[in-house]
Design goal:
The chain is built from 8 helices and 8 strands, in the order βαβααααββαβαβββα. By secondary structure, the protein is of the alpha+beta class. Strands 5-8-7-6 form a 4-stranded antiparallel sheet, with helices on both faces. A two-stranded antiparallel ribbon has the order 1-2.
Amino acid sequence: MSAGTLPCYLCGKPLLAPISVDHVPPLQFFAQDLRKKHNLSRLLTLQAHQSCNAAYARDEQYFLHSVGMFGARTYSGNPILKKIAGDFGAGKHTRLVRKVLAEFDPKPSGIILPKGKIAKRADGERLRRVAWKIVRGLLFHHFGEVYPEDWTVGVTVTAPGEQPPEHFAVFNHLASGDDLGPYPGIFAYRFVKEEAGQYWALLLWDAVIVTVIFPSKDASSIDDSVSS
């Protein structure tokens, strides 16, 4: 099979130059210090159109800054927080950092928080977009399937110390086997793939749980047979 007949996993069209090598999850999720120290050479990469990949760059930076802060107390997450702080001190990503810091609210209007708790808002659509991109990459890696960006997807993000959604406990009961991913302390995942729908759970920096739930491509044919 020639390179031109391979699909871009993001748009599904044949791969034509210019092409980029995309990391799944994004390379910046693996702190540079850890990549050097532990020679992390087994990162998953996929080919994608350069333009398709670049279209996610700003959202991936936002995801890293907004969610990566929750990994501050972990071995793999702390270096990311240090880099964010270092970049900010050097005048890099200052607007983004200020935006993320403004998402933390110790006294949200009309809500009484338990002692020691603080509210955290986020741009849910940007988090959804990045989480779904990661899962789309894993779907292509495992099954060669291309899912569109505008697929119906439900995403949750659970910070350390918080209770995951109830469906996560059901998923843990159904999922079998060990966590997947060559470096589980940084990124691990498990999934249940059924004909009607799929449930993917991602663990970032051994701290943040992200769930992604969506109908499988075959679900439409199932719906048609039920309604007919």
